[in-house]
Amino acid sequence: MTETRTREAQLIEAFEELEHGANMAWRNSIRCIGRLFWSSFQVIDEREASSADEVLEALRRHSLPMEAKSGRR
């Protein structure tokens, strides 16, 4: 595992490692009916968000384009 930096004694993985881990976790989740679509899972790195407002803004940036793609609101 590549260590990019440590913060408060926690290992912070490189983005590629987080993306791969999230994809494998979803693919290997036996009870998840949506696991067949694991390869389309999109990981967005928003680890720098440190306040509730920053997290909310990151969610809005991520969810609005996804909703536009599917045609749902």
Automatic annotation (TrEMBL):
Annotated Nitric oxide synthase (NOS) domain residues: 31-38
One GO term of the biological process aspect: nitric oxide biosynthetic process
Keywords attached to this entry: Heme, Iron, Metal-binding, Oxidoreductase
SUPFAM superfamilies: Nitric oxide (NO) synthase oxygenase domain (SSF56512)
Molecular function terms from GO: metal ion binding; nitric-oxide synthase activity
Keyword presence, Calcium: no
PROSITE patterns: NOS
Superkingdom of the organism of origin: Bacteria
InterPro entries: NOS (IPR050607), NOS_dom_1 (IPR044943), NOS_N (IPR004030), NOS_N_sf (IPR036119)
Keyword presence, Heme: yes
Gene3D superfamilies attached to this UniProt entry: Nitric Oxide Synthase, Chain A, domain 1
Official protein name in the record: Nitric oxide synthase
Lineage of the species this protein comes from: Bacteria, Bacillati, Bacillota, Bacilli, Bacillales
